[in-house]
Amino acid sequence: MTTLMTALTTKMMTSISEVMETMFFLPVEFGEESKAINERMKEYKPDMACQLKFSGDVSGKITLLIPESLLGEMAENFMGTPKEELTSEHISGTLTEVLNMVCGNALGKVESKVPFELDIPAMIDETKISDSLLFNIIQTPGAVMALNISLD
Asked: Which of 9, 24, 69, 105 is deepest in the core (most CB within 10 A)?
């Protein structure tokens, strides 16, 4: 299972880089995994979270934490609409679409006998995320995101 997790994490990081740079015009850099999510993430202020479940050869879920300020910039870049005209639906829709594009791109590159299927991305309460989860830190020019991959 660790070989699959390593491959999935690598594909996911490549996908994040491709999607963020191509669709949202934001370069990214990757930090170390952080286990102390509540302590470390307070400094990054990720106040929105989205989760996407998938199934195939293996099942699991991907969770993305991101500051609303970064989502506003991403929505503005993606939609070509000024920030002041964006609604909360535009912001949350951008988050669900980011996760959907990243996961679809990454899972499409993972060798599998059974094709992966994605559920619909869902907004979640970031305060309910377990302290024990490992998150990969993703740095953009103005803010930091965090991504967790969990297999069932």
From this structure: 24
Rounded distance, CA 58 to CA 151, Å? 7
Report the run of H or E that residue 6 belongs to, with start and end: helix 2-23
The structure's pTM equals 0.86
Hey, is 112 helix, strand or coil?
A: coil
> Residue 72 has which token pair?
């506003």
Which residue matches tokens 């930091």?
144
Closest CA to 136 of 5, 17, 33, 18: 33
- β-partners of residue 122 are 51
Q: What pLDDT digit, counting tens, does each position of 72-108 carry?
A: 899 998 888 888 899 999 999 999 999 999 999 999 9
